[in-house]
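ENTRY TYPE: protein
WANTED: fold as tokens:
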Amino acid sequence: MEIAAQYRALKKEGRLQEALLLARREMASLEPNAISQLGKMLQRDLCTGRQDSAEIATGASTVKPLRVFVAGQCTTTYLLPMLVAWAWADGMHVQVSDAEYDQVVQSLMALKVEDAPDVIVVLPWNQRLLAHDSRSSAQRIEDEVAFLQQCWAQVARLKCKLVQVSYDWMGVGALGYGLSSRHDHEGDVSLIQRVNASLRAALPAGTYLVDLKHISSWHGKSRFYDERNYHWLKQPFSPEGLSVMARHIAAGIRVLTAGRKKVLVLDLDNTLWGGVVGELGAHGVATAAGSTEGEAFLAFQKHVKQLRKSGVLLAVCSKNNDADAREPFEKNPHIVLRMEDFAAFHASWDTKPERLRQIALELNLGLDSFVFFDDNPVERAHVRAELPEVLVPEVPADPSLYVRVLQETLAFEAVGLTSADAERAAQYTAENSRKQSLGVAASPEEYLASLEMGAEILPISAENIDRVVDLITKTNQFNLTTRRHSRAKVEEMAGTPGAVCFAVQLADRFGDYGIISVVLSVPDEDSTAGEALRLDTWLMSCRAMGRTVEHLVMNHLVERATAAGYVQLLGEYLPTPKNTPVKALLPGFGFHTDAAAGRGESWHSLSLTTAPVQSTQVRLLITENA
């Protein structure tokens, strides 16, 4: 039975949860038309007010859909169900609307700040750039960049996150393949290349770019585009091209609102090397250069190593004897990866779902940030069935295709990389050293004191805003409100007169955590005579939880608020499926709910004149005019 028919049957039987999970699990295996069909059903079941549907499928008590607005210079009607489908497959519940055909700036100008979407997608096309008129190439490019800057100005006004699609061409034009890309002949391909270069140079910081030219080239332009669709519908994409583009846009939405996947969990035998190490030994497994199989596994290891350097955590989950599993990394000179490259290493005969749960606890990360890569179809099916939140690619039999398959998941796409990304693996290595120290400490207090922690309070600035926005985007557990503010919104809040906004950087004797906490608090507009400061956002990296850093942050916030003349601090806790660890945070610091009367149960207040000083094991080292 086709997936769409199975979906309908399950829903008719009242088994909507199973239907929605089926759609999520099987999306990647479907043909484009089937994806569109399933997307239309998901639009009806997820995106027209049926909030209960998403709650049932995710098991969450509260699921706020992401609102996405698509504005294009081509028809976008057929993109919407594809986007809903791929977003759902990527773990997101989105509600999508679009502008009228080629009414991009006008539609964006009509949007109101108070009802702005979470993400705006701008999709240009080339009809004006390649129009037959008397303009020079320079003028054409200038016109397109001016048009885009008008769009970006509206996105900034609305304080939204932006997915920007680049320009592309369907055909090489009258100059043919040889001349169209030469700048001196001003061919169509040359114009596309030059306008895309100008787009990249002017792109607002924090934007996710969908590089349509590279994507269509990879999949093949003759398959990606359909001239008939453009002439009939003003929509240039084939069903395959539309599906691929929707998948990349969905990945961009995920990156902007939740961040990239954080952990790549790898099997060993016939995944990282050829053969079974328990039978062949450390030097017998296939990884050496010179053989086709060995070269393929070697290429995959090198790719994985580069992912680690970009900030992706690596873990091993293998059914093996532990000593056998470790030996190739320690003794085989052809293995590119080494034991220190892994943040977690689990080789045992337990079930893989159970081991994945253990790894998640060990790293203090959610399973929805995991990618599980295993050559064994039985193991993949087991993990998909027990842990549907884990991304499990369909690994091919041919190891030479491993890199391609992992790349095509789009799991590790990113807006940009910060120094914190490059240092992440080393930070988890340091965390293992801390855990060893915990094992020999006589008490939790002695352990914390032995860490010799020191913190710096930093103003939010151009030097650290990328890291600040990154934390806002992907921090889930220690996050009072889980508001995913855009870069523009953060800059606006930090620049608000009377605001108290800062970042916290932490270090101890084992290493530097980097920036691990962000506080955004602004004057409360509803309080009398501006006497209250409203805590809009307070979050902290899970790596720093349980270190009493939050106590130092609260002391500093109270001190700054008092110095600014406030007498009351208002805080809000908005529960999500993941932020239960901070449910009691505000009451634990002396906040009262009855003092925030009329604001709802989520609000708490603290009198700054009687606020208690919190005990902390963290020394305040520097405060740089934060």
In short: The longest strand covers residues 511-523. The two ends are 61 Å apart (CA to CA). Confidence is low (pLDDT under 50) at residues 58-62.
